[in-house]
Amino acid sequence: MLLSQETGTVARSNQDHSMKDRSKIAFNLTKIFGSNVFNDRTMKERLPKDTYKALKETIEKGAPLTLEVANVVANAMKDWAIERGATHYTHWFQPLTGRTAEKHDSFISPTVDGGVVMEFSGRQLIQGEPDASSFPSGGLRAAFEARGYTAWDCTSPAFLKEDAAGNVTLTIPTAFCSYTGEALDKKTPLLRSMDAVSKQAMRVLRVLGNQTTQHVTPTMGPEQEYFLIDKKYYDQRIDLITAGRTLFGAQAPKGQELEDQYFGAIKDRISAFMKDLDIELWKMGVSSKTKHNEVAPAQYEMAPVFATVNIAADHNQLVMETMQKVALRHHLVCLLHEKPFAGVNGSGKHNNWSLATDDGLNLLEPGKTPHDNEQFLVFLSALLTAVDRHADKLRAGAANTGNDLRLGANEAPPAVVSIFLGEELTDILVALGKGKAASSKGQHFLQIGVDSLPRLPKDNTDRNRTSPFAFTGNKFEFRMVPSSASISGANTVLNTIVAEALDETATRLEKAKNIHKETTAIVKEAVNQHGRIIYNGNNYTDEWLKEAKKRDLPNIRSTVEALAAMATPAAEKLFEKYKVLTKEELQSRYEVYLEKYAKDINIEARASVDMVKKLYLPAVIQYTSELASAIARLRSVGAPSSVQKALLGKISSLLDSASNKLDALEALAQKAQNIREACPGAKAFRDKVVPAMNGLRSDIDALESLLPASLWPVPSYADMLFKL
Ligand code: ADP
Ligand code: MG
C-alpha cells in the first residue's frame, strides 16, 4: 500500500518560481510521479485480467505465485522497461552492510543468426543467484558455499533506476537468503515481522468484534536528516572520505546557538539540489513530501508520505542513495553519518510507526474520546508493554558506530528508552491504572488573542522533541534510529515485540467470558506493570537519568553494550517464537554488527594516524621552524621576540604531546585488531582506541586554533559548515 500524494501542495512549496513555471511543475508532477514504477496502475494496464488478479492475490494475501503467472508478469515488465530505455535488470537486495546491492544482467539472448533478442523469464523475475561469498554473513555461510539466492518481493513494486550516463535498469526488490534458507539480509526478517504483527493484531481485532478487516500492516514514515557540504572541501578531508565524519576540527566561532538555521529560508543552491532530488524520487514513486533546514548549520531534512514499512524501507534506501548521487551533480556531498561534526547536532532518522488495516483504520488513532476507545487503549497498552519489556532490544535495533556519538550525548534522544504520551493520555492511563473512571478533555481550541486569526483546534498531545519514543497524535515516533542505517532492523524489532504483546492480549481476550471486563483488566495491568516507561518531561536532563535509574530502566551507552541484548536467551526465544529470526540468524547478526563496529573504529583510527602523520605534523613542524628562524633573526637585531617565543613554546609542547599520542594510538589500534574474537575485539576498540583518538584530536584541534589559517592543511569547520 503506497499512500496517495497530495500533488497540489507541491506547487505551493515552490513559491520562488514564476506562475508559468509553477503550473508546469504541478502539471508535470502528477505525470512524473511513479512514471518509473511498475505500479498497480501500470500492472492493471499491462497485464491480462486473470494474471493481474492472481498477482494481486499474492501481493495482498500471500497466495503462492505460479511460474505461469510469473512468466506473463516478467514479459510485461520487460516490455514496459524496454520502452523506457532499459537494457538491464537487477535483483536489488539489502545485505547486512545496511546499504543495498545490485548486479546487472542485460536482457540479451544471442540468436543463431548472430543477433540478439531481449528476454526476461518468470524464473529470472522470481529468483536470482548472486555469488554471495563477499557479503557479511557472520558464519551463516562459509565462503566456499557461495550460493545465495534472491527472491522477488512482489509487495514492493519493481522500478527503473536511471543514472546520469543514461543507463536505465529494471530494478526488482528482493529478499536475500542462503542455500539453506537462512536470511542473509535485512528485508527477510522485516517481512517476517510484518506477518507476525499482522497475525496477532488480526486476532485482537476479531475478538473485539471487528469482522471486516482482512489484514493489518505496519505503516512507516521515516524522516531523513542529512548534511550537505561543498565537494571541494570534502575532497580535501580524508576523514570524511573514509570515515564519513570529521575526526579533527576546531570549533567554528559560530555553531547552532542562534537557532537561525532550523526552518530558515532555504538557500538557492540547496533548493536547486532539493528540487532535483524530489524529481528523481518522485519518478521512482518515492513520495517525497517535506523538506526543510535542520538545527545544525548545513543540515537538512526530507520526509516522505508514510507507506507500508517494507516499502518505506526500500524507499528510504533510495532516498539515501539518490541524495548522495544528486548532491554530486551540484558539486555538493551529502553526509549521512550520524555525527559528521563535533559540537553541533548530528543526524538521525525519525521513524513514524503505526498499524493500519486494509479497510482504512489507523489502530493508533485515539479519536475524540480516547478514554472510551477500547480498541485504541488495548493497542496502546500493547505498545507500553512491548517497549518496556524490550527496551534493550529496541536500543540494539538502533545501534551503530555513529550513533554512539549521538545517543546520550545531549542532543538526540538519550540512551534510555522511554515513552512520551502527553498529559491527556497519561491522565487517562493513570486513572485506568487505579481502576477509576477516566475522561477525555474533548476538543479544545487555541486562544491566540488576535480576532483575525482562525480558531485552531488543539491536538491532544503537545510535542516533546526530547523523547526517544513519542506518541504524536496517531502514531509513535521512534527517534533513535541512525541516519545512515537501514530502518529495517529497528522496525523488525518493533513489529516483533508488539506482536508478542498483542499475542498475549488476544489469548486473554479469546478466553475471557466478558470482553469488556478483560480489556479493562489488561489496560490496568499494563499501566501498573509497565507505566514506568512513560516519561513526559525533558529527556535531556540529568534529573531524568537519575529518575530512569530509580525506575530501573536500562541506560545503554554504546553499540557494543547494546548489541549484547540480541545475543541473550530471551531474545532468541522471542524472535524464534514469532519466526522472525532463528537463533543462528540472530547470532550471525550479533557477530556481523560487532565486527562492523570494530572495523569502523579501525578505519577511523587509521584515518586519524594518516592525517596526523601526513598533514598536521608536517604543517606544525614547518610553522615551528618558521617561528624559530623569526626568533633568531629578531634576536640578531636586538628586537623583542617574547610573543613568538611564547607561541613557539605552546605549539612545541602540543606537538610533543600529539606525537606521543599518535604512537600510542597506532599501538592500541594494532593491539585491538589482533584480537580474534568479535566481542573482546569490539570492546578494545571502544575502551582503548576511541579514547586514544579523542586525546589525539584534542591536541590537534588546539594546534589548529594556534596556527595561521593559511598553513592549516585541511578546510576548517567554518569553511565546511558556513561556506555554501
Ligand atoms: P515532524 O517533523 O513534525 O514530526 P514530518 O512531517 O517531518 O513531521 O514527518 C512526519 C512523518 O510521519 C511523515 O513521514 C508522515 O507521513 C508520517 N506519518 C503520518 N501518519 C503516519 C502513520 N499513521 N503511520 C506512519 N507514519 C505516519
Ligand atoms: Mg520532520
Question: What this model shows, in words?
Answer:
Strands 9, 10, 11, 12, 13, 14, 15, 18 and 19 form a 9-stranded mixed β-sheet that branches. It is globular and about 100 Å long. The chain contains 23 helices and 19 strands. It folds into 4 domains: 31 residues; 146 residues, Glutamine synthetase, N-terminal domain (Ubiquitin-like (UB roll)), CATH 3.10.20; 367 residues, Creatine Kinase, Chain A, domain 2 (2-Layer Sandwich), CATH 3.30.590.10; 125 residues, Four Helix Bundle (Hemerythrin (Met), subunit A), CATH 1.20.120.1560. The relative contact order is 0.10. It is α+β, with helices and mostly antiparallel strands. Bound molecules: adenosine-5'-diphosphate (ADP) and magnesium ion (MG). The site of adenosine-5'-diphosphate has 15 residues, from strand 9, strand 11 and strand 14.
Characteristics of this structure?
724 residues; alpha+beta; Ubiquitin-like (UB roll); 4 domains; nine-stranded mixed β-sheet; globular; binds adenosine-5'-diphosphate; binds magnesium ion
CATH-defined architecture of the largest domain: 2-Layer Sandwich
Helix % is 40-55%
Rg, Å, rounded = 28 Å
Number of strands: 19
The total domain count is 4
Morphology call: globular
User: Separation of termini?
Assistant: 39 Å
Q: How large a portion of the residues is in β-strands, by DSSP E?
A: 5-15%
As for the CATH topology of the largest domain, it is Creatine Kinase, Chain A, domain 2
CATH top level of the largest domain is: Alpha Beta
CATH superfamily of the largest domain: Glutamine synthetase/guanido kinase, catalytic domain
- Please describe the biggest sheet, giving its number of strands, its sense, and whether it closes into a barrel: 9 strands, mixed
